[in-house]
Design brief:
The protein is α/β, with parallel strands linked by helices. The protein has three domains: 190 residues, Rossmann fold; 135 residues, Rossmann fold; 38 residues. It has 14 helices and eight strands. A four-stranded parallel sheet has the order 2-1-3-4, with helices on both faces. A four-stranded parallel sheet has the order 6-5-7-8, with helices on both faces. The chain is globular. The structure holds ligand L6N33NVT and fe (ii) ion (2 copies). The site of the ligand C=CC1=C(C)c2cc3[nH]c(cc4nc(cc5[nH]c(cc1n2)c(C)c5CCC(=O)O)C(CCC(=O)O)=C4C)c(C)c3C=C has 22 residues, from helix 1, helix 2, helix 5 and helix 10.
């Protein structure tokens, strides 16, 4: 085999406070994050939401030192993975490709093309697949491959999701045990899995396997842990007015507090590095909610970061994928094409479900257009003199 490369895919995060606005704009410009029926709406809406959210989001980043640690940790994971692969006699170059901030996926692809990589393993740093995370990065890569003929000869394989990997489950169990051991009665503490949420429509309408993979992952971690502790799964970080996967973390914490739970370990399970949602949302916001609800001994399991058992798990994943038949990007993005997606729907006349859905969407678009117009002072209603 020729020169091997591993492309680690991740979300990216603002390095400093000034990056927050443009980072949010990139994130909301992604049709896999906000799913709209018309592409032309994407950029104005992204600008509008990013502008509105920047201040609050900056306040949150201020609490964790003024920026996201995601780049630093992902690069450290890459270095540790390289050393582990070297030790196993499988030398490889590691590349980091972020979706919404530096180093962008496009930069990583340009670099690996320059390095004459001959076989590439595409490894998202999300254990479970979601349209909004790994799916979005795979779609981008598919586009880059289509646009750049230079990439055609590069042989690659994709790892779509890997939450069943035994080393990963073992690392998670060890991180939980570390926290359980801090309680006077380790077997009685409540284990609280907090997954990043997604809008419910992603699962129900678009067929995102995320919820099923999260639920299975929770069961597998509990089996690996092999302790009698009670556990709960809930979803955090809801954004916007639509319904997301339930139960919401804040509600589940309040409910457990009301039931008299005092000792609790939160386990973040959708992400493998510390980031704003562990350091700020769980450690500050959810801790406060839990303490108010009477959960006085609130602890959190660390994210796997560069835990040696976790890094070995990543190295095993890379090795196993090199031995299996290649999995193409078209194969891993295809699962979405089999289910209901906005661009594939067709208009139907009459009082059909489809027509009702479209009525709702048109009303929503009208409303959004009105808000944008009020904020920017420009648009159709100003042009015809209805707004000044
Ligand atoms: C598996 C993990 C993640 C899923 C699923 C996910 C979906 C998702 N996220 C948003 C909106 C935002 N996400 C933001 C930050 C952010 N998201 C993830 C992970 C998942 N997102 C991470 C790791 C981070 C943090 C990066 C960092 O800086 O450390 C943000 C910005 C922060 C904020 O303002 O709260 C937003 C906004 C949506 C809408 C979504 C599903 C559709
Ligand atoms: Fe997110
Ligand atoms: Fe989030």
């Amino acid at each position: 085999m020729g020169r091997v490369g591993v492309l680690l895919l991740n979300l990216g995060g603002p390095d400093k406070l000034e990056d927050v606005g443009p980072f949010l704009y990139n994130l909301f410009s992604d049709p896999e994050i906000i799913r709209l029926p018309f592409r032309w709406m994407q950029k104005p809406l992204a600008w509008f939401i990013a502008t509105r959210r920047t201040k609050t989001s900056q306040e949150n980043y201020k609490h964790i030192g003024g920026g996201s640690p995601l780049r630093r940790i992902t690069e450290e994971q890459g270095e540790a993975l390289k050393a582990q692969l070297d030790a196993m006699g499988k030398a490889a170059n590691i590349y980091v490709g972020m979706r919404y901030w530096h180093p962008y996926t496009e930069e990583a692809i340009a670099q690996l093309a320059q390095d004459h990589i001959e076989k590439l393993v595409i490894l998202p740093l999300y254990p479970q697949f979601s349209i909004s995370t790994s799916g979005s990065s795979f779609r981008l890569l598919e586009k880059l491959w289509q646009e750049n003929p230079q990439l055609q000869p590069l042989e690659y394989t994709v790892i779509p999701s890997w939450y069943k990997q035994p080393g990963y489950l073992q690392a998670m169990a060890e991180l939980i045990i570390e926290q359980l051991n801090q309680f006077p009665n380790p077997d009685q503490a409540h284990i609280f899995f907090s997954a990043h949420g997604v809008p419910k429509s992603y699962v129900i309408e678009a067929g995102d396997p995320y919820q099923q993979e999260i639920e299975e992952c929770t069961q597998l971690i509990m089996q690996t842990l092999n302790r009698p502790n009670p556990h709960t799964l809930a979803y955090q970080s809801r954004v916007g007015p639509v319904e997301w996967l339930q139960p919401y973390t804040e509600d589940a914490l309040k409910e457990l507090g009301a039931k008299g739970v005092k000792d609790l370990v939160v386990v973040p399970i959708s992400f493998v590095s510390e980031h704003i949602e562990t350091l700020q949302e769980i450690d500050i916001e959810y801790r406060e909610i839990a303490e108010e609800a009477g959960i006085h001994n609130f602890r959190r399991a660390a994210a796997p970061n560069t835990h040696p058992v976790f890094i070995k798990a990543l190295a095993d994943l890379v090795n196993e994928s090199l031995e299996k038949p290649n999995l193409k990007l078209s194969q891993v993005t295809q699962m979405k094409k089999r289910v209901k997606m906005y661009p594939q729907e067709r208009w139907e006349w009459g009082l059909t479900t489809s027509a009702e859905v479209w009525n709702g969407r048109i009303a929503m678009l009208g409303f959004i257009a009105l808000i944008i117009e009020i904020v920017t002072g420009r648009g159709l209603l100003h042009a015809i003199g209805l707004l000044q």
